[in-house]
Amino acid sequence: MLQLTRHLARLCLTLLFAAAAAGACAQGAPRPKLTDAGISDPASAIWIGNSFFYYNNSMHGHVGQFIAAGMPGFRHRATSVTISGSGFDWHDVDAYFRPNAIGNYSFDANNNVVFNKIERLFDVAIMMDCSQCPLHPQLAPVFTKYAKSNADTVRKHGAKPVYFMSWAYQDKPEMTAQLAEAYVREANANDAFVIPAGLAFARSVAQRPDVNLYVADKRHPSLAGTYLAAATSYAALFKRSPVGSSYTAGLDPAVARHLQTVAWDTVQAFYRRND
């Protein structure tokens, strides 16, 4: 009886995620105004966010591995600026574009300091609010305020603003549609691009609930979760399919292939690039 109860519980949760994914993509849901980031194959990116980005040795590192595997010879420079638990309003985005600061130097393969000459610091700025902020009664207005001000700041410095749509908590699948609506609404209002990572999470859970995308706290990403979000980011920003990529992050090849396919299918459906 206990085993049957657990099975039914898992089934119900799977159905809830499937419903959330369907709801977020329903006919009445807002559609993104922009279907690309406005820069073909961005050569540089800054990731501005929180622990959802820095888990599993940082999201930008995994995206970089997809780029290396899928675009040999393409040089992409990225950095991540994260504050644990942070929302849009915790970050001084203007400070991240100071001259002779971020990106001013790096280290080569022999650990020698290399001083870089950079004409434009970043092509895109990928920003994520705290996991609940867009939905919280008191913090939602802050989300709206800083979605605009941060996008304006990024654009002032010659970069393109990108919003990273975060995922639902494992035990609160209804957050998927709510977060999707909030991020797309603000992106359309501020001419920003959206990466639909949250929709990819819901699609994966609906298709393969056995692939766990979360750690024990039901919020932060497992390695599979980070991998899926990175594959979705790569597909969205570079308009290239991650399916068949040699980069698997050490995951089982069948699991990696599933996550690659989910990322590509989500991106194609979200932007309706096949219309």
UniProtKB/TrEMBL annotation:
Q: Which residues cross the membrane?
A: none
Please state the span of the N-terminal signal peptide per the UniProt entry: 1-26
Which SUPFAM superfamilies does the record cross-reference, listed alphabetically? Answer: SGNH hydrolase
Q: Which GO terms describe its molecular function?
A: hydrolase activity, acting on ester bonds
Q: Which InterPro entries match?
A: SGNH_hydro_sf (IPR036514)
Q: Does the keyword Heme apply?
A: no
Tell me yes or no: is Signal among this UniProt entry's keywords: yes
Q: Supply the alphabetized keyword list.
A: Signal
Name recorded for this polypeptide: SGNH/GDSL hydrolase family protein
